[in-house]
User: Fold FAD-binding domain-containing protein from Novosphingobium barchaimii LL02.
Amino acid sequence: MQPSIVPIVRPATFRKRGSNKASPNARRQSGLLDIHAETGQRAIAAAGLYNDFLELVRPGEDAKRVMDRNGTILFDYAGEPSLSRPEVDRGALRAMLIGSLPDSSIHWGRKVAAIIPLGEGRHAIDFGDGPVATADLVVGADGAWSKVRPLLTDVRPVYSGTCFLEIGLAADDQHAATFAAIGTGTLMAVAPGQGILAHRNADDSMSGYVALNREEEWIGAIDFTEVRAGLGVVAKQFAGWASHLVRCITDSIAEPTPRPIYTLPADLRWSARPGVTLVGDAAHLMSPFAGEGGQSSHAGRRRTCPMDRGKSRPPQRRPRHI
Assistant:
């Protein structure tokens, strides 16, 4: 009997509040992601998608600029033409990966309620609103609040003390000074305990985050029902900063979604258990500042589910998906 693999996809990740009808387009994938040659690119090549990946590379957009609160440039890196750590659009990368799979591989809108061990490495997956599925192998790729992780360890994520808030600007003449500060890649305007992180998108718009070291309750208490008022509360934390940097906050057109940064211990280990494993944030949740989270996820998936090398798509003969 062929083993079965259940991809765990949580609709909450797609922000379909009050609905269970998630889809590939339910959540906007904003911003850029650098894909490292020694980890992420190797996984993509193992899946036979390297040539497709090269079509997504954004030359020169690995440029990095660091400013202080006054807009003074402290560090300016123009980027490099090599492919050691090229930037790609997150949405385009996700579309490429999903597009490489058979249509039946991902069941959107199936929220996992519980996973019940059945013995001999098999598990029952209860979706709470329909038939229970069974599988010989469950790969938990279900993020920070994984429903699979408790099968392997009792350790839970802890708040890091830093919270992000999504921001964005459309490409227009009103923000010329702001876009000039960002440059062609990523801007990090920083001061102790706070920062504005922004980067240029393919359409010349800006996506990014405000970063603040605050209690989790502080950001959670801000009422963003009135978006401008909520953004104003955040902007007050940047009093005295250069005005063209603060406008990244006050003029933002992005949905102001708070994103508390949680982490798992760097030395987290668990004992192997038949029929279940973890990859991605479910296995090694970390802050984004090292730029290694996505790379570790790709590398983990490559080790867990190796593909035949040299093929443009995953092999047709593959484990059954539920």
Notes: Residues 198 and 208 are 4 Å apart (CA to CA).
